[in-house]
Amino acid sequence: MGESVGGVPPVKVASFDCYGTLVDWEGGAAAFLYDLARRNGDFDPGPGRRLRERWEEIQFEAIQEEYRTYREVLSTSLRTWVGERGYRWNTKEGEALERAMQAWQPFPDTIPALMRAREAGLRLMIISNTDRYIMEQTLRQLSPLTFDAVVVAEDVRAYKPDPTAFTRALEHARAKPEEILHVAFGFQYDIAPAREVGLQTAWINRHREQPPGDERPDYEWGDLWGLAELAERQASA
Fold it and tell me: Which domains does the chain have, with CATH numbers?
């Protein structure tokens, strides 16, 4: 790669949070939960976004506990969410959520932008809070895009924001921490722990939100085209 851009070291590797950054996690989860509410006879459950936000709060609490597979986390967090809303629980709903997650689609910019970044010389990695089996299905949705390394929670038996997955990713990166740019849509799970281990960070702010607190990433883009442009500027420098 070329010289540094914007006063920071040149990026050799881009790592990504997968769900929410590359794949439309928010839309997929909101649609699933809204449909589940309707099937339980709740014809005015509120916006899908609100349903998803509450479920995510429950899930975040679940991953702070002793490690369980992500399949279990999905099921137990959904069961708690269902119970809070007074719906009848069926274990098949947890299985249905796992299947739905495997089919959630990448954002329109994901594949073409990352293909451009790879062509400009970046190596690509995924660091994700999931299991190998679920990730394998998602990687099929991202085809023909390929990644140089994929680290999931199952590999390290810990979930972000625990930095263990980032530390494992460094073993695969063949680059110094400051030469790795972690690209993510969330501060809580990704931006903070990535900075903790010395990575550069980029916030994919698709909803044009204000950053939480005083923390600022090295880059902020509305989509992944910003990464492609950064890689191409570096390559031509």
Answer: 13-24+105-236 (3.40.50.1000), 25-103 (1.10.150.240)
145: its two tokens: 């895009």
Nearest to residue 1, comparing CAs of 86, 121, 126? 121
- Do residues 107 and 113 make contact, with C-beta atoms less than 8 angstroms apart? no
Residue by residue, pLDDT tens for the chain (237 residues) are: 333 445 678 999 999 999 999 999 999 999 999 999 999 999 999 999 999 999 999 999 999 999 999 999 999 999 999 999 999 999 999 999 999 999 999 999 999 999 999 999 999 999 999 999 999 999 999 999 999 999 999 999 999 999 999 999 999 999 999 999 999 999 989 999 999 999 999 999 999 998 887 778 999 999 999 999 999 999 998
Q: Are 36 and 93 in contact (CB under 8 A)?
A: yes
What's the CA gap between 193 and 170, in Å, rounded?
13
For residue 121, count CB atoms less than 10 angstroms from its CB and return exposed for 0-12, middle for 13-18, buried for 19 or more.
middle
